Amino acid sequence: MRKARPRQCQGLHKPAHVTAMVACVLALPWAAIDPAPARADGSGGCLEGDWIAEARAFVAEETGIPAPEVCVRLAGKERLDGLVFPVALGESHGEAVAAVYVPATREILLADDLDPGTPLARSYLVHELVHAQQFASRAHERASCPGALEAAAYDTQASYLRTKGLREEAFLLQVLGMFQGACGDSD
Ligand SMILES: [Zn+2]
């Protein structure tokens, strides 16, 4: 049996425009990642906008739980990749990190090349808001593996895409979530 280290950010590799983008949560008990550098951005205050309000409203409606207060910021690709695939772990896969939730600072970092006008970009915010909710409700302490948290986040992200008519993307993300939710390689 393969005994893989649980990873938060696992991606299928095709089609590139969806699954080469991974969305993650940091600082789970399994992740030896210090989230502190996430603060060292210096990019000013938190983003605001109708698109953020829309994503929050969707998550609240979909899950029946209000989305917690978080700070949404943009971050450069190198920074996101560095947070999610630290050199020390040697696990960079050529995947682009679309978004990450940093529980320690309650920040959602979105890749700065995402266009918030697009449903796909907003869906990553939806995904990370689900992670924020999971931490607010301490669901991360009860999850049987990191993938279980990812499965819920991908599921809600897929629902969002479906409501926007992006059925193919929704399907792929749902499959991705199902794979991760299996907890097959947890101890
Ligand atoms: Zn995730």
Automatic annotation (TrEMBL):
Domain DUF6647 intervals: 94-174
Name of the molecule in the record: DUF6647 domain-containing protein
Organism this protein belongs to: Microvirga aerophila
